[in-house]
Design goal:
Blueprint lengths: L3 H12 L29 E4 L5 E2 L4 E7 L4 E7 L4 E8 L5 E7 L2 E4 L7 E7 L4 E8 L5 E9 L2 H4 L5 E12 L7 E11 L4 E4 L4 E4 L1 E4 L2 E9 L3 E12 L4 E12 L2 E13 L2
């Protein structure tokens, strides 16, 4: 698994923390419940592994296996407009997926084999969903294509799913490259933390005042190191989360730094 910015750029070509504080008034966040949406998961159609490029239906649970260094493509045509959740579960950390279609082009970015993407499908919209693995052996998986709901995403009562559009502008090149991408996060405003879509905590945050906080998102392995320092504002009236800060990174011994901004919308 790789750094989220490198991941998004690489996939496009391949497929075409601080201590927490929650001293604010928890009751003020009750207004956000209007954005929670559907709580329960609908009944799912269980489907054995399909062939590459087969059509799939909404509210399906697909069980399958990907051969090593391979991928499988599913095609979904929306019969109505509405939120759709794509949920991947696998024991492998080297499996990911990407969805591309009308109004969406998004990849999973968690560092585990469990991740989700939530998007709005449009009536008649055609969507390609590719699941792929870098494992040397066959990779079992389960994959849900389901009407967006909190249960399928594993959200607790005080957690919210936020889709964010991120703009990272680096200062390590002459052109100051801009990288724009979308990804989902889980925010818990009452307990003061933010997590990836697989539920793995990114960081506890430091509460600056009742509606603003800061946190550091960092990761390191033998190839990639990065650190983002975000200051974030929550708007209770419209259900948005706006963050801004600086980042540093090192990828294959190339150092970089820049400015990151994101605007997120509570979807569930």
């Amino acid at each position: 698994m790789i750094w989220k910015n490198i991941l998004v750029v690489w996939l496009s070509g391949w497929l075409m923390a601080c201590g927490s504080s929650s001293d604010g008034d928890e009751g003020q966040y009750q207004v956000l419940e209007q954005y929670k949406g559907v709580s329960q998961e609908p009944n799912l159609i269980e489907v054995d592994e399909q062939n590459d490029s087969d059509a799939v239906e909404l509210n399906s649970l697909i069980t399958g296996e990907i051969d090593r260094s391979h991928s499988i493509l599913f095609q979904y045509t929306a019969s109505k407009e509405g939120g759709v959740a794509l949920v991947l579960n696998s024991a492998s950390d080297n499996i990911d997926f990407r969805v591309r279609g009308e109004g969406v082009e998004q990849s999973s970015i968690a560092f585990t084999g469990n991740d989700a993407v939530v998007f709005t499908a449009f009536t008649g919209g055609f969507y390609e969903i590719r699941i792929y693995s870098e494992d040397n052996n066959a990779t079992p998986f389960q994959f849900k294509i389901v009407e967006a709901n909190r249960a399928s995403l594993g959200l607790s009562d005080s957690e919210y799913w936020v889709n964010s559009i991120v703009n990272d502008r680096d200062t390590c090149s002459d052109n100051e490259d801009l990288n724009t991408y979308t990804f989902g996060q889980i925010f818990n405003f009452e307990e003061g933390y933010v997590s990836y879509g697989d539920g793995v905590k990114i960081a506890d945050w430091n509460l600056k005042d009742e509606l603003s906080f800061s946190y550091i998102e960092s990761y390191s392995n033998e190839v990639i190191t990065y650190s983002y320092e975000y200051d974030v504002e929550l708007n209770l009236e419209v259900g948005t989360v706006v963050g801004a800060g600086i980042f540093t990174s090192s990828y294959l011994e190339e150092d970089c730094e820049g400015i990151s901004n994101y605007e997120g919308k509570i979807l569930l």
